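On clarity, I found the account of how folds are encoded harder to follow than it need be. An entry of this sort, consisting of the sequence and the corresponding backbone structure tokens, reads as follows:
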Amino acid sequence: MTFKYERIDKDNVALLIVDHQEGLFQLARDKTPQEFKSSILAHAELAKVFNLPTVLTSSAETGQNGPLPAEVIALHPDAPYIKRQGEVDAWDNEDFRNAVAATGKKQLIIGGITTDVCTAFLALSLREAGYTVFANSDASGTFDVKTAQEANDRMRDAGVHVLSMFAVACELMRDWRNTPGAPELLPFFDKYLPQYGYLTRAHDAALVNGTPSGMPEPPA
């Protein structure tokens, strides 16, 4: 079988924010609260970095599910915001389907709560509708690791690409010399991926005022 690597195309992709609601956030136990909050905000801000069309949706937010975080809404004040009243699968809502279609994009990056329901149900429906789907695994959460793994397996079986936020960002960028590139992505990583941010800071500090550590050169 011939494999074709379909990469995220920043000119043909939209980003979906699915049920990242303050009440549903309490159900996400497969990640620490600190990690997951950061990943939710990173998912939303990634669309700003790459100027991606974005659609927001929530489920029964006047009940226990709660609203989307104010920080997410503030990042996308002009984006379509579909407040579903009962549909579990966002694709069952006509206004949401129309908003996604209106982006004109055939690739979609998604993240939601919970992974096994809000993300997976929508991902499968999108695949059936002919879209290429990239599920940001960092920006989806559920009850436990086992449930997350089962949901990710189910999506992969349907042809959904399941990948990390770092992979999503790098595949959108492709080359550090592009725009957006290093000047835009390094501050983003410093904010949401501190391992990479501090790596960059240490490099810059060494260039500015670093001295050799004294470690011997490795043998040739």
Observations:
- The two ends are 43 Å apart (CA to CA).
- The mean pLDDT is 96.
- The chain has eight helices and six strands.
